[in-house]
Specification:
Helix content is 35%, strand content 15%. It contains 15 helices and 16 strands.
Length: 447
């Protein structure tokens, strides 16, 4: 018998433990005595029926050869699936923004010429020509996702050109969503109904005083009231809103108050999807307010006990999809790549530049090509992105959490004078995170 290397163990209750398969999310409660025999490879002392179940759920293999064959086949399948995945595209119509947020990430780069140029429609035509060339008849247009982002894509003064982008999306039959601060949303709502947007993402960082101290206009005024009204307008016409809360030390304890505001204004609307995201770096404001995810998760669980209303927020932690596969009996999809940037994602700005990762937009160091005249790629940079896989980075190959992590984000804690490290992983303490989250659910009787 050969024991799968990708196994996580966790104390359950009494004399029982959890055994968790980090490849497929299989999770079982077993007697600690059986677990001890498993860990010590003492399989002769384990009942045959239990051994058969352990093999069925891929904890055990008949031999190391069988295990290695399984891993080779698995990784080949994942690799092909990721590299052949349906492409998605992000369009940046401008780097300009009507807010002056205290932690703006784009200020970590020196982005010049932020405003839309006079020949923007020509650039947009070229963007969609590029998208068509990548799709190349190999994918169904209705499966192609376009995301508008910026800067701020929905600026009132840019309405004509944004409407043209909506028209182009509709003419091809693509899906689309928008990442917006929501300030000028009211001027686009009628169009969004007509063009059937999948959802919009808006950030609200806390109750009025907290939010307005972080996400403010250049004149110092806060944006809370205007955004809250526009969220209501969007929900009233059945547009789904994903409401992001960027969490750090300044607004962590304000989350219960924000939950009360959302419940008071929107009830339990199934069109509103609020979620918490712990800032991984502090953007232009520095690192002193960043909370480690391990500490932040524990604080959220403590807050939930005192303020159960904050359970309305989905918690976007690193192992969330894996944890959900356990708690919600959902299928877990192992990965070799952290995100679409290493697969089939393309970011197109209004200057004619192509990027793979949105953390690098506006910075020539991370530009992988041009689309305006002739489609021209930097093949060396493209290969770096495509080859960023946990099956190719030495430290990842030996890590049992590699199918959850997928190498981590190469742009984590990025700075304007740093380069993405494409050949080293960006490690996250998945052991601690999984233990913290599952232990809390065990205490709550969820497992």
């Amino acid at each position: 018998m050969f024991l799968t290397k990708e196994i996580h163990y966790l104390k359950y209750i009494d004399n029982k433990s959890l055994i968790i398969n980090l490849i497929n999310g299989a999770t079982d409660i077993i007697d600690s005595s059986i677990l001890e025999n498993i860990i010590n490879n003492n399989f002769v002392s384990i009942d045959e029926d239990i051994l058969d179940k352990l093999k069925e759920r891929k904890y055990l293999f008949n031999s190391e050869i069988d295990y290695n064959d399984f891993i080779l086949e698995l990784e080949d399948s994942i690799n092909n699936s990721e590299l052949d995945s349906t492409p998605n595209f992000l369009i940046i119509p401008t780097y300009a923004c009507n807010l002056n947020c205290t932690y703006c990430y784009e200020k970590t780069y020196d982005i010049n010429h932020k405003k839309i140029s006079n020949d923007s429609k020509l650039f947009i035509d070229k963007q969609f020509d590029f998208i068509k060339s990548i799709i190349n008849g190999s994918y169904n247009n209705k499966d192609i996702l376009i995301t508008l982002m910026g800067g701020e894509p929905l600026l009132k003064g840019n309405k004509e050109i944004i409407d043209y982008i909506f028209f182009k999306i509709q003419s091809y039959g693509y899906k689309f969503n928008i990442i917006t601060n929501g300030v000028d949303l009211e001027y686009f709502l009628e169009d969004l109904v007509g063009f059937d947007v999948d959802h919009i993402q808006i950030t609200l960082d806390g109750s009025k005083n907290i939010h307005d101290s972080r996400r403010l206009f250049y004149n110092g005024d806060g944006s809370f009231d205007k955004i809250l009204v526009n969220i209501e307008k969007a929900l009233d016409i059945n547009i789904k809103v994903k409401l992001r809360v960027n969490v750090d030390q300044d607004n962590l304890m304000d989350i219960p108050k924000l939950a009360d505001i959302l419940l008071k204004n929107f009830g339990d609307s199934d069109l509103l999807y609020p979620y918490l995201y712990f800032l991984q770096d502090g953007g232009c404001s520095g690192e002193n307010k960043v909370i480690s995810e391990e500490v932040g998760i524990k604080e959220i669980f403590l807050l939930e006990k005192e303020y159960p209303q904050i359970k309305i927020f989905y918690k976007k932690f690193h192992p969330s999809s894996f944890i959900n596969s356990i708690l919600l009996n959902q299928k877990f999809h192992p990965s070799l790549r952290h995100c679409g940037a290493s697969a089939n994602q393309y970011v197109l700005d209004y200057k004619g530049n192509i990027y793979k990762c949105w953390h690098g937009i506006g910075n020539n160091t991370y530009c992988v090509g041009k689309f305006f005249v002739d489609y021209k790629f930097n093949e060396n940079l493209l290969d770096l992105w495509r080859n960023r896989s946990s099956s190719k980075i030495d430290k990842c190959i030996s890590c049992k959490y590699k199918y959850i992590c997928g190498t981590g984000c190469p742009a984590s804690r990025h700075k304007s004078n740093d380069h993405f490290n494409m050949t080293e992983p960006s490690c996250v303490d998945y052991e601690e995170l999984i233990n913290t989250i599952l232990s809390e659910h065990i205490k709550n009787g969820d497992i």
